[in-house]
């Protein structure tokens, strides 16, 4: 039995699942037919110029060729789409054995927001709560909320969220709740008693729903209060002025709400870290975009937690699966491919959209066809959110080089033996490379 577990631990943590050919052959045949028709069309267009309007004919042919080329380039990624499957049991067997310290890598999760009046604080709170309740070792999860608008409303709502998380997180983990964003969990029109076996679940669920409704009222009260800004600006509870009253001229602000310093839930268990960050703003600098906020979070997180991997989400993108981080680690920590993986892009799913999807708001074609097709070629593109990065790839460090990597490609043999001749230039390069590796 022990030998079987060792063999399972050496197996890959994910695999490629090709889409059955019978689902793709018809589409491929249509592509080929269209390509043949296009060839006949252009053969006719080129061999039958319009002499009376030669310039107009030439421009139209160039435009048609351009559109045909664009269509052809769009078809290549769709030729070989793939699915991917992860093995969470192998990940647990390799890095998270029961009764032993977890060897899963730390992850820093970034949530970005700007204007709480346009991006409701309640939605941001649900995103944060779904992160704090993930199925992952709590000492290896850190959530950073970037407030690029330096709004006191965001700060106060995050404080309320931290207090509610002390009750919500243990409830989710005790009863294995999915999804772990309370707004969307309580809106589900399903049998919430399915697979629940603890008699206390109904009573605790009702109490938690009441707690969440009271939490919503407190958040709504903060939003109503923020509608009218005082002339002298906002003041904090101790009477001092809020540093971010001027959103374009204020110092950097960092506040740790949850963490090692007393961040415990109602059951006395530790909670993941929750950190509020508002980067410094000064007039005359164009630093009001999301990319700059992400750069600031990378620097702050490097000082506080320095997780090996980063995952960024928008404030309205909650985790619909508590095992999302483990899914990402199946790729990042794979013994064979993990070192070659820069990022893992999650697909997006949408709530509250017309079931018939009349206006294609679900982006099914993009996420379920185009992205899977790109994955079949080399890998999907980064779509700006829902992406887990390798921190080292973002930092741009050179890869660690071994001595075997530094050996010259040309081997010179002497008549006395087959030893490699190490020239002076090779030794200089080796010393330089090893010094770079140490840095």
From TrEMBL:
<dbReference type="InterPro" id="IPR029044">
    <property type="entry name" value="Nucleotide-diphossugar_trans"/>
</dbReference>
<feature type="transmembrane region" description="Helical">
    <location>
        <begin position="54"/>
        <end position="73"/>
    </location>
</feature>
<keyword id="KW-0961">Cell wall biogenesis/degradation</keyword>
<keyword id="KW-0808">Transferase</keyword>
<feature type="transmembrane region" description="Helical">
    <location>
        <begin position="25"/>
        <end position="42"/>
    </location>
</feature>
<feature type="binding site">
    <location>
        <position position="118"/>
    </location>
    <ligand>
        <name>UDP-alpha-D-glucose</name>
    </ligand>
</feature>
<dbReference type="GO" id="GO:0030244">
    <property type="term" value="P:cellulose biosynthetic process"/>
</dbReference>
<keyword id="KW-0328">Glycosyltransferase</keyword>
<feature type="compositionally biased region" description="Basic and acidic residues">
    <location>
        <begin position="425"/>
        <end position="439"/>
    </location>
</feature>
<keyword id="KW-0479">Metal-binding</keyword>
<feature type="region of interest" description="Disordered">
    <location>
        <begin position="420"/>
        <end position="439"/>
    </location>
</feature>
<keyword id="KW-0464">Manganese</keyword>
<keyword id="KW-1133">Transmembrane helix</keyword>
<dbReference type="GO" id="GO:0071555">
    <property type="term" value="P:cell wall organization"/>
</dbReference>
<keyword id="KW-0812">Transmembrane</keyword>
<comment type="pathway">
    <text>Glycan metabolism; plant cellulose biosynthesis.</text>
</comment>
<feature type="binding site">
    <location>
        <position position="148"/>
    </location>
    <ligand>
        <name>UDP-alpha-D-glucose</name>
    </ligand>
</feature>
<dbReference type="GO" id="GO:0008270">
    <property type="term" value="F:zinc ion binding"/>
</dbReference>
<keyword id="KW-0472">Membrane</keyword>
<keyword id="KW-0135">Cellulose biosynthesis</keyword>
<dbReference type="Pfam" id="PF03552">
    <property type="entry name" value="Cellulose_synt"/>
</dbReference>
<keyword id="KW-0862">Zinc</keyword>
<dbReference type="GO" id="GO:0005886">
    <property type="term" value="C:plasma membrane"/>
</dbReference>
<keyword id="KW-0863">Zinc-finger</keyword>
<dbReference type="GO" id="GO:0009834">
    <property type="term" value="P:plant-type secondary cell wall biogenesis"/>
</dbReference>
<dbReference type="InterPro" id="IPR005150">
    <property type="entry name" value="Cellulose_synth"/>
</dbReference>
<comment type="similarity">
    <text>Belongs to the glycosyltransferase 2 family. Plant cellulose synthase subfamily.</text>
</comment>
<feature type="binding site">
    <location>
        <position position="119"/>
    </location>
    <ligand>
        <name>UDP-alpha-D-glucose</name>
    </ligand>
</feature>
<keyword id="KW-0175">Coiled coil</keyword>
<feature type="binding site">
    <location>
        <position position="289"/>
    </location>
    <ligand>
        <name>UDP-alpha-D-glucose</name>
    </ligand>
</feature>
<feature type="binding site">
    <location>
        <position position="290"/>
    </location>
    <ligand>
        <name>Mn(2+)</name>
    </ligand>
</feature>
<protein>
    <recommendedName>
        <fullName>cellulose synthase (UDP-forming)</fullName>
        <ecNumber>2.4.1.12</ecNumber>
    </recommendedName>
</protein>
<dbReference type="GO" id="GO:0016760">
    <property type="term" value="F:cellulose synthase (UDP-forming) activity"/>
</dbReference>
<feature type="binding site">
    <location>
        <position position="112"/>
    </location>
    <ligand>
        <name>UDP-alpha-D-glucose</name>
    </ligand>
</feature>
<feature type="binding site">
    <location>
        <position position="314"/>
    </location>
    <ligand>
        <name>Mn(2+)</name>
    </ligand>
</feature>
<keyword id="KW-1003">Cell membrane</keyword>
